[in-house]
Amino acid sequence: MEKDGAGRNTGTFDLTEGGIVRKLLVVAVPIMGTQFVQMAYNLTDMFWLGRVGSGAVAAAGAAGMYMWLSFGFILIGRMGAEIGVAQSLGRGDKKAALAFAQNALFMGAATGVVFALCSIVLRRSLIGFFRFREADVASDAARYLLVVSFGMPATFISNCLIGVFNGSGNSRTPFILGGAGLLLNVVLDPFFIFTLNMGITGAAAATLISQVLVALLTLWGVVFYRGRPFEHFSFRIRPEKSRMFSILTWSLPIGVESIAFCLLAMATSRVETSFGADAVAVSKIGSQIESLSWLIGGGFSSAMVAFIGQNYGAGKWDRIARSVRLSLVIMTVWGVLVALFLWSLGGFVFSLFLPDPALTRLGVIYLRIFAFAQLPMNLEGVGAGAFKGTGRTIPPSLASVLANLTKPVLAYALSRTSLGLYGVWAAVSIVTVIRGLWICLWYFLSERKRRPGQRTSLYLLYVSGLPEILELFNNFSY
């Protein structure tokens, strides 16, 4: 890449110059695609296992909770790479960016091996946490977890490298490489599950093979692909205490947040299991459909981390403020649209996964309960992304953990009322609303104190952001 007089990149993946909306979308859309690819592994499994039965869906969903738990540890390396690479490139320091990438990869690979070993050795105890009433469901879940655990180190490595690509502004390459793994999974799932009659073990095997392929492709991509972040990437890594400390400072709060979120969700799921495997299956399918919202919101939030990180390193504060305004308007529109979709068409989509009419009716109620949380969930992505891009990862993580601590308690309390199972889902939706609004408001209030001259009224932010969005339709090069 070429550089300007200050040593900053001026190539395709430089986010410190050019149209804000276009640059955000250039980064955000492939990230959304990558997140969809990662989510689609479970979605594909759920689709085909739904043809096997609700017990198979519940088993895969329970094991999937530990795959979700692993993501909290994955984020330590991935977010460290994303923030470190983005801010270093924004300053024009490619040497520091490379050092952050290498140290994050080392930490990610080591953590992945440890997590995989723990999951393999403790799989039966881990699944036993859910206290399934059906012994065959618990056995299937433990078998699924055993198989997918062998691929966890590969998943940790590929995600760290995804963070490196995202931080450099090139989110397209991870999407392309991840898409290859998804295509393989789509082909292998029905072949293993039905043709080879492997059932739930076949779904796990398909996921394992696909994840290993993605890891190999990302390793190849960071060294040889034309869109690689660095001209030369060496795997002869010398761990540096200062870099690793910075990575932990940025990413540990985010990792703890994700881990706590998952553990508390697991505690909530344990309340769900008291209503039987059907309730768990409906919840898992419903959450996959609902992911349409956080998939886009999370992708846009990750794009903000890369965009704001580079501009933070370059000291371009006005550009950061404008990006937050624009993101606020875009995510508000998306949150409202998804809420309407879940309320009106969610049942039809749900029936594609679990054709049983009784379960579909239950799924409609689930999706309508969570429709109310979609807008706050997307606002959370804006506030969290803005915090993380400037390296302030503690506020959004702290707010998330404190809000989520109330989730299992509220779920248990409401489940003991006349609401029953609906009370569990209502509790999760209520906490999501509180968490999203809290994090978004915290960011704008903190900016009012840090930069008194900035417009931090939410009304003014919407009013000032909307004309810029409208201008996009007239001149996309804005």
Brief account:
The chain is mainly alpha-helical. The protein has 17 helices and no strands.
List the keywords.
mainly alpha, disordered N terminus, about 80% helix, single chain, about 475 residues
DSSP strand count:
0
Q: In terms of per-residue confidence, which ranges show pLDDT below 50 for 5 or more consecutive residues?
A: 1-12
Q: Radius of gyration over alpha carbons?
A: 22 Å
Tertiary shape = globular
Can you describe this structure?
With 478 residues, this protein is an all-alpha fold. The chain has one domain. 82% of the residues lie in helices and 0% in strands. Helix 10 packs parallel to helix 13 (374-389) and helix 11 packs antiparallel against helix 13 (374-389).
Protein topology:
Elements: H1 20-52, H2 54-90, H3 94-121, H4 123-128, H5 135-149, H6 152-167, H7 172-195, H8 200-224, H9 241-273, H10 277-314, H11 317-353, H12 357-371, H13 374-389, H14 394-404, H15 406-415, H16 421-450, H17 458-474
